[in-house]
User: What shape does this take?
Amino acid sequence: MALFPSLSIGADALIAQQRALDVTGNNIANVNTPGYSRQTAVLSAIQPATGNIGGGVLATSVQQAIDPFLEARRLSVASDLAGANTQSGILDQVQSLFPVQGTNIASAMQDFFASASALANSPQDIPTRTDLLSKAGAVATQFNQTSSDIATLQRQTDGQIQQAAKDANTQLATIAKLNAAISAAQVSGTSPNDLLDQRRVALGTLAGILNIQVVQHDNGMVDVTSSSGQALVLGTQASTLATSLDPSNIGLDGNALSQIGVLTAGGSLVKLSGNVGGSVGALLNLRDTSLPATSGQLDQLANTFRDAVNTVQTDPAGEDLNGAVGTPFFSGTGAAGLTLALTDPRTIAAARSSNLGDNTGALALAQVANTTFPALGGATLNDYFGTLQGQVGSAASAADSEATVQQNLSSNLEAQRDSVSGVNLEEEFTNLVQFQRGYQAAADLISVSNQMLDDLLSLVS
Amino acid sequence: MITRVTQATIFRQLQSNITDLQRQILDAQNEVSSQKKLNQPSDDPAGAALVNNLNGETSQLNAYQSGVTFGTAVLGSEDGALSQATNIMTRAKEIATEQANGTTSAANRQSASEEVAQLEQEMLSLGNTTIAGRYVFGGLASGSAPFASLTDPGFNASTAYSGPSQPFSIQIATNQTIRLTTPGDQVFGSSIVALDNLRQTLAAGNDPTANIDQLNTAAQDISNELSSVGARANTLSDRGSQITSRLTDVQQQSSSVEDADMAQSISLLVQLENALQATLASGQTLNTSILDLVQL
Assistant: This one.
C-alpha cells in the first residue's frame, strides 16, 4: 500500500477525467463527420489491493455507441433506396418519350388519318396527297425517334452498370484494407473505432451499388458476399467486379450489352446471379426487362400500323393517279425501321376503280383509324398507344412512390442511428462540465493531500 | 419512437423538409404556369390514356366536320342546279303544250325548236356544274366534262354522259357514310333525251303531243333527285350539329382531366410557400445552445 493513497488516487483521477474530456472533445470535433459514432470513455473503479478502501478510478477503454441490428437494416435499406431512385429516374425519362401535351406517336397517326379523310374529300387533289405523304413521314419519324431514344436509354443504363462495377471495386478494396488494419489494431489492444466507422461507411456505399450480406468475425474482420452468396470480400482479400460484352444479350441498338460479374483467379467472369439489388439490380432490370418490353410494344404498334396501311394501299382493286395498283406506303420493320416508301403523291391509291374522282381507297385508309386489331389485343392504333402511355405513366408513378417510401424509411433509420450513435452537442457540453468538475475535484484532492503531507512533515521537523 | 435527438437529426430533417417543400412548389408552379394538372403520364396514368383517346376522337370529329362542310357545299351546288333544271323542264312543257295545238304552223314549230335547243344546251351545262373545278354530277371528278355539248359533232342525246358511273360518298361517322353525288346520266339522262326528242319533233314541224308525257316522266327524275339532295343536306346538317355538340363534350371531358383548377392550384402554391417560410424560420430557433446558459 502506498504511503499516501489519496495522492495516487488523485493522480489517477486526473488522468481518467482527462481521458474522458479528450473523448468528449473528439465527439464534439466529429459532430459533422459522416458515419462517426459517438464514443464514451469507460471509467471503472480500481479494486482495493487490501482493506476496504478503493483504489481510485481508471479509464479502461473507449467504446462506440452502436446498434448492430440497426446497422444491418441500414445496409439493406441503402440497397433498396438506391435501387428505387435509379428505377424512378430512368422510368421518368421513359415517360417523357410519351408526352401528354404536344406531339407524340399517337398525334402523328391522328394527323395522318385526318389527312386521309381530307384526301377522301378531294382524291385527285395533289396538295392534299402531298400533305398525306408528309403526315406519313411524320409518323415514321415519331416512331423512329421514340424507338431510338429508348435504345439510347438502354445503352446509358449499360454504361452505368460498367461504372457501378468500378465504383464497387473501390469500396471492396477499401473494406479489405480496413479489415487488415482493424484486425491488427485489435491484436495490439487498441480500439480501432474510427476504422470501424470508415468501414461502415464503405459498406453503406457498397450496399447502394448492390445487395450485400455481411458476416462479422471475432478477429474484427467482416466477410462480404452478394445476395446469392458470391464472395466479394473475404478477410483481407477483395474480389474484383468486372464487365464484359455478352454476345447472347443484344441491345435495342443491335450491339451487345455488358454482363457484370466477379473475376475469378483464372480471369474468367462469374456473372452476378439472383436478386442483385441496389442500383445495379435496378439497372439490370430496366435494361433487360422494362425497356425491351416498352420497345417491343412500340414495334408491335409500328408493324400493325404499317401492315394495315399497306393492305389498303396495295389492294388489287386499287388504283393511283397513274392508273396503277398501289405499292406499299411504308417499308421497314419495327418502330426503328418504319420508313415512308412512297415519294410521288400521285402514287397514293385513293381510288378502287378507273373512275376519275373515285375516293373509296382513301375512305378505306381513313377507316384504318377505327379498325381494331387482334395483334393489339383488340384495340385501335390510337387506343393501344394510350394504353402504352398509361402503362409507362403508372410504372413511373409507382417507382416514384417506391422511392419516396424508401427515402422515408432511410430518413427514419438515419434518425434512429443518430439517436444511438449521433453526437448531441448539449449532451457533450454537459459531459464537458461534468468531467471538468471531476478534474478540478481531483486537482483539489491532490492539493489537500499535499497540504496534509506538509502538515505531517512540519510535525516531524 | 426516437428518444435521443441530435443536431444532425434536426438539420437532416430540416433539410429534407425544405427539399420536399421545394419539390412540391416546383410541381405547383408548373401547374399554375402550364394551367395543366396533367403534364406527364405519371401525373394520372389512366387520365393520360383517356386524354389520348379523346384526342383521337377530336381529330376524327374534326375530319368528319370538314367532310360535313364540304358535303354541304356540294349538295348546295347540286340543289341550285336541280332547281334550274326544274325550271327548264317547266318551260319545255309549256312550249310543248303551246305547240301541241293542231292549228300551229310548221314554221312556228321550227322557231320554237330553237328555244328548245337552247334549253337542251342549258340542261347539258347544268349537268356540267362544277364546284372548285370538280363536276358535281360527274362523281366530283376533275378533268373532262361529263356531259357532251349539243354542238359536238355526232352529238347523241342518249350517250351524252361519259362521266363516272359510281356515286361519290364520304364518311361522316365511324359507321356512317353519306352519298354526295348521283351519276349525271341518272339525273339528267331522261330529261336530255326528252328535250332532244322535243327539239327534233318541232324542227320537223310535227305535233309534240306525244312528247309531253316523256317530259313529265323526265321532270320526275329531276324532282326526285332534288328531294333526295334536300334529305341528304338535312342529314349532313343534323350530323354537323351532333359533331359540334360532341366536340364540346369531348373538350369538357378532356379539360376535366388535364386542366388545372386555377383557384385550387394558386391557393396550394401560396400554402406551400407559407410552409416553406415557416420551415426556414424554424431553422433560426436552432441557434439556442446550452453554451448560452452554462459558463464553462
